[in-house]
Amino acid sequence: MSAADPTFEVVLKQLAPDAKRAELDYGEAERPAVSARELRLLLRAAEKTAVQVTYPLAPEVRITTPAGRYVVHLKDGRLNLVTWSSATSRGGNPTADQIFALITGQEIQDDTTPVDAGGLPDNGSAGSRWRWATASALVVAIIGINFYSVWNYQQPPGNLVPPFRFLEPEPAKRLLESSAGFYETGGSPGDRRLEINPDGRVVWIKFGADRRAVERKELTALGAESEGQRALFTNRKSLIKVKDQTALVLFGDTYLRVPK
Questions:
Q1: Sign of the torsion formed by the C-alpha atoms of 12, 121, 105 and 2
Q2: How many Å apart are CA 121 and CA 137, to the nearest integer?
Q3: Rounded distance between C-alpha atoms, residue 111 and residue 66, angstroms
Q4: Which of 196, 204, 200, 217 lies closest to 166 in space, CA to CA?
Q5: Are 39 and 104 in contact (CB under 8 A)?
Q6: For the chain, first and last CA: distance in Å?
Q7: Most buried residue, 123, 135, 154, 249, by CB count within 10 Å?
Q8: Are 222 and 238 in contact, with CB atoms under 8 Å apart?
Q9: Whole-angstrom distance, CA of residue 230 vs CA of residue 211
Q10: CA 23 to chain centroid
């Protein structure tokens, strides 16, 4: 192998060094300099081993490359590709050769090529071009899934409302009247303010320098109860929990009552 040939850091969990057997006693084994050919053989062996995996086994192959890091789970009789950066960003169930192509950027080897062969098929063949297109589509899909996962985690949890029920009109009216007032998390830049009106109108403000409002949202709220605690359910599908007469909680932040 020439100095220019890439190598990969591989960690095998609950797998034999050749990935041909899966047992709890194997634990984790590091292989710091795996060649591309060896990586292909490991993935193909893992694909065959996956058929034999049963609970409580949870074997996996972790692969670190200059371009990124990946985890391949042996689960449900097949390989499951997951990006290391986000356990929720699943890449689906590609074959061993598709995973190899994704990780190395090389074309997928024809099924008729012997496992021990080191060469790749002719770039001009229709089968090779089709398989390369499949691998490219897989790359795009995984990137898209990762992007969505990052975007989704950055969104405010307004749609993750715990179970609640609306109060009857009279109790709801009393709750709004008793909760009416001004509440703040603090007075520094980045702190927030809630203004609760007895008629259910709510104003949310984010402070900038000198307590200037750099962000403002107007909401409406109805009296509710969630997990045995009084709350105000807003039209943005969020719950303002009423701890007591002096404190509210919104998205995990505590707002304390302040003078007008």
A1: positive
A2: 20
A3: 27
A4: 200
A5: yes
A6: 75
A7: 135
A8: no
A9: 30
A10: 29
Q: Does residue 111 register a pLDDT over 60? A: no
Structure tokens, 172: 């709801």
CA dihedral 228, 232, 234, 240 (to 10 degrees): -80
Please state, in angstroms and rounded to a whole number, the distance separating the CA atoms of residues 214 and 258: 20
Cβ-proximal residues to 173 (8 Å cutoff; 6+ apart), any chain: 223
Nearest one of 2, 44, 51, 1 to 22, comparing CA atoms: 51
Tokens of 45: 């062996």
pLDDT per position as a tens digit, 233-247: 998 888 999 999 899
- 75-108 pLDDT per residue, tens: 888 998 876 543 334 445 688 998 888 888 764 4
Chain-centre distance for alpha carbon 129: 32
Spatial CB neighbours of 144, under 8 Å, sequence gap ≥ 6:
none
Distance separating alpha carbons of residues 26 and 233, to the nearest angstrom: 52
With 0-12 / 13-18 / 19 or more C-beta atoms within 10 angstroms meaning exposed / middle / buried, residue 46 is: buried
CB 200 within 8 A of CB 180: no
Is residue 228 within 8 Å of 154, Cβ to Cβ?
no
What's the pTM? 0.41
CB 231 within 8 A of CB 164: yes
